[in-house]
Amino acid sequence: MGNLLCCIKVDQSTVAVKERFGKFTEVLEPGCHCLPWIFGSQLAGHLSLRLQQLDVRCETKTKDNVFVNVVASVQYRVIIDKASEAYYKLSNPRTQIQAYVFDVIRASVPKLNLDDVFEQKNEIARAVEDELEKAMCAYGYEIVQTLIIDIEPDEHVKRSMNEINAAARMRLATNERAEAEKIIQIKRAEGEAESKYLSGVGIARQRQAIVDGLRESVVGFSSTCGNHCQRCVGHGPSNTVF
């Protein structure tokens, strides 16, 4: 019915490309439009303005000869002011984006060791995004964001890395355990030394008390004997009958 009335509908978040006798004339935005087909006007196709995402898996080799699979996630959309370029200049944008991602990743990752690839994944993503922006803008596409969402080494390398990490953690745990045992022994020795010191102090005090007691006894005995002798001298000679 719409074709008979020369009217078409363009959905929201979509644009339509209008041609006349096979030549591009204009981009139709969402809404109802008149398309007089009897004068050679026709609808060439539609373009979605929604944000689209493409995940690209790229296998490459690092500087230390480790094969890794790098997964890049590219978010892109059509620039509405360049919808005609997006429709006519590029037949398959996903393939084009994938080719640029491959090119940048395979040029960047071989310059880095495996550990550096994990540490510098944001720099790799930024390099991919910069290259895509320069290339895809001419085709009417905007690169919204590029992320490196996964770096997956070969399974044998991953197992070796896990074993290295496990050994390092075990070594650290052993060192910590030895350090704790050392502290325990030091504290035990300090406790024993303190205990022996206190025991020695107690014994010394005990002996001092014994000596003081003996001294007092001797002094008391001496005083008693001295007094007795003085009394004997004071009474003079005495006759003792046996």
Automatic annotation (TrEMBL):
Residues of the Band domain: 5-165
Which UniProt keywords are given for this protein, alphabetically ordered?
A: Lipoprotein, Myristate
Which cellular compartments is it found in? Answer: Cell membrane
> Where primarily located?
membrane
Q: Does the keyword rRNA processing apply?
A: no
Which InterPro entries has this protein been placed in? Band7/mec-2_domain, Band_7, Band_7/SPFH_dom_sf
In terms of SMART domains, this protein maps to: PHB
Q: A Pfam family in this protein?
A: Band_7
Instruction: Quote the PANTHER family the UniProt record gives.
Output: STOMATIN-LIKE PROTEIN 2, MITOCHONDRIAL
What protein name applies here? Band 7 domain-containing protein
Organism per entry: Cannabis sativa (Hemp)
